[in-house]
Specification:
Length: 484
């Protein structure tokens, strides 16, 4: 019934209307026509128009509410819909261009991956620089620590040299010891790094700076051996540091079969090398420096020498000559007393300190023969004697020159006896260490040819030695009595 009813209503669709006629296949139209067929005829003229009017009004209200609530989105949708016709062709063109570019992009990606891969056999210079930069970035802290090693070494050495003055206290001396020990540890660490990485320019540069700093440390240690108040403990520490800083001064034995008590033993303290001579030279320099402080007294003694020479040439007559012989010499006596006192203290201290630091070797003849033939060639000049063998003679010559020059100025017999007794005490002090030189008194008057009493002068030293021995014997008896 719906189709015949729709055909009956077709003539009424031709009336002017802004709406498009409904289609016969529209489900809504078919549903409404089916509903009309179920209504009585009276309803079509009475209630149906009202129902349609009510539905129209309800739809109108709904449309008004929707337009008020969503008018912006509706306008935007309308605008986008108007541009959709031009956007879609552009999108299609861009998609086609992207599709055409994908093969080129794939080829470029493959080429990049082959050129800049991380395989070890790849020798690309850009990758090498990048690897080095990354390696440097990862190890920047370690490199900074390595670069700081020469600065730390120099700081430790400079602080040690500043605190290791001769008059330092125990606290500052211990600080200097710790600083020098730290410096030696740092130098050993730098040497170990140089041994591990001998081809590294950075490590080689650090090693060169460390060598310069260790040369400064060696100079400081040698200068400390010339200190005025050098003690045995500090001298032994200094020599041990020098053995580590300058091992070329303390050679190791060429024949390991030699006894450890020999002079070339690596485990004992008897090995001397050049350190013994260095120690004696430094202490001799200190002794000469201390004796040079007596220069004012020496100038007075020189003036007195010139004055006595002038008096000796101008005096005439036996009585006046005898009177002039025993006058003067006070300034010379002061100078000689002070000179001999310093000489006695320092010479004994030098030799005793040397023997404590470098004990006498106890090598057997077989061991010495092994040293001589260690290289397969017999050297008649080996082994070299200890530097201490000739050092006392050097000291004695110094004292002898001073006595020969200034002792004739002292004309008073008691003053001469006092000075000669002081020389004998000095000789006995050094004789306890094997350097007795008391017999030089017999040769002090060889050049005094101008004296008329040569026989008395030649017997002067005999009388002085006799008195000294008597006094020494009395002292020994007194000491022996106290012991019993």
């Amino acid at each position: 019934m719906a189709d015949p009813l729709y055909e009956l209503l077709i003539p009424y669709f031709d009336t002017p209307s802004p709406r498009i006629p409904p289609s016969s296949t529209d489900p809504t139209t078919n549903a409404y026509l089916s509903r009309l067929t179920t209504l009585p005829l009276s309803s079509l003229t009475s209630s149906e128009p009202q129902s349609l009017a009510q539905s129209t009004h309800s739809l109108l209200l709904s449309l008004q509410a929707l337009s008020k609530r969503s008018h912006k989105s509706i306008i935007d949708s309308s605008t986008h819909l108007s541009t959709l016709g031009t956007t879609l062709p552009v999108l299609a063109q861009s998609t086609a261009s992207l599709r055409d570019a994908l093969p080129k992009l794939d080829d470029a990606a493959i080429s990049f991956s082959e050129t800049y891969n991380l395989r070890a056999e790849n020798t690309n210079p850009l990758l090498d620089r990048r690897r080095k930069a990354l390696l440097l970035s990862r190890n920047i802290d370690r490199l900074s620590d390595v670069l700081d090693l020469p600065t730390l070494l120099s700081s430790a050495i400079s602080s040690s040299s500043n605190t290791a003055a001769p008059t330092t206290s125990n606290a500052t001396s211990s600080n200097a010891t710790l600083n020098y020990a730290s410096a030696l540890d740092l130098n050993a660490h730098i040497k170990r790094l140089h041994g591990l990485y001998p081809d590294s320019p950075l490590i080689s540069s650090v090693s060169l700076q460390a060598e310069t700093a260790m040369q400064d440390m060696c100079s400081n240690l040698i200068a400390s051996l010339r200190g005025n108040s050098l003690k045995l403990a500090s001298a032994m520490r200094t020599i041990s540091w020098l053995r580590r800083v300058a091992p070329e001064l303390d050679p190791t034995p060429a024949n390991p079969s030699i006894s450890t008590t020999s002079s070339m033993s690596t485990s004992g303290g008897s090995r001397e090398g050049a350190l013994g001579a260095l120690f004696l030279v430094c202490r001799l320099s200190n002794l000469e420096q201390m004796l040079s402080a007596l220069e004012p007294l020496r100038e007075l003694a020189d003036q007195e020498t010139a004055k006595l020479k002038n008096q000796s040439g101008a005096v005439k007559g036996e009585k006046e000559r005898e009177k002039s012989k025993w006058e003067g010499g006070q300034q010379t006596e002061r100078y000689l007393k002070r000179y001999i006192e310093i000489f006695r203290e320092q010479s004994f201290a030098i030799v005793s300190m040397y023997r404590s630091i470098f004990p006498a070797p106890a090598a057997t003849p077989e061991g010495l023969k092994g040293v001589i033939k260690s290289q397969g060639v017999e050297d008649p000049f080996q082994p070299l004697p200890s530097a201490l063998g000739t050092f006392p003679s050097k000291l004695v010559r110094m004292l002898e020159e001073i006595l020969r020059k200034y002792l004739p100025n002292v004309r008073d017999r008691s003053s001469r006896d006092s000075l000669l007794t002081q020389v004998l005490y000095c000789a006995g002090s050094l004789g306890r260490l094997g350097g007795d030189f008391s017999l030089i008194l017999a040769f002090l008057n060889e050049k005094e040819d101008e004296s008329d009493d040569e026989e008395e002068d030649s017997e002067e030293w005999v009388e002085v030695i006799r008195k000294h021995r008597v006094l020494a014997g009395r002292l020994e008896l007194m000491v022996g009595a106290k012991d019993h």
